[in-house]
Amino acid sequence: MVQFHPPDELLLGYAAGSLSEPWSVLVATHLTLCPDCRRATADLEEIGGLAIEDLAPVAMSPTALSSVMAAVAGASYAEGVQDAPPAFPFLDLAVGDPPLPRPLATYLNRAGTPHAWRTLLPGVQEAALPAHAASGRPSLMRIRPGYPVPQHTHVGSEAIILLAGGFSDGLGDYRRGDVSFADGRHEHRPVAHRDAVCLCFIVTDAPVRFTGVIGRLLNVFNRS
Q1: What is the reported pTM?
Q2: Domains of the chain in sequence order
Q3: In angstroms, what is the C-alpha Rg of the chain?
Q4: pLDDT tens digit string along 65-89?
């Protein structure tokens, strides 16, 4: 069962259609795996629909269509569409791993999957995904069993949804469907579970800031 959820402001933004595409995709991906948040979001959308009846029309944001498409993909999958999302050989999922949730699969099909993983540190690889500068930086990350991501905090916000495997970071123990959210108030060190490769979809709106002696060296490369 999903235990960790997006913060309320992300669910509100998703229901209102005000999130940029990467953040919308992350929330929609969580909704496909979390009945509680689907129900909460449906209630928020109903309340919002009643409220906007009395509002004057306003111009739509440049990412409005993408946000709506992400919401539609999440809703259709949650309502019981059973055909499996397409496989992505690039991800090199283990035998028995569940398929990607439909909103993320739809996004990858449209955005184009990356061609190579970039090694950040031993056991930690990242594949950046296309995005507009102001919309949030989306990426896929995979961590070999038992390997850590160095301890760090955040200049802005970071949301991680677990797609396969899991990790612990001192703030929680996360598995498929869980969302880890961190900002400048948090400092953590994710360590992948030892039984499987950890695969995540991540959205950030500012670079991370590594802490500790090794972290200060990593910050130099992180700025380059």
Answers
A1: 0.81
A2: 117-222 (2.60.120.10)
A3: 17
A4: 555 555 555 555 444 444 567 778 8
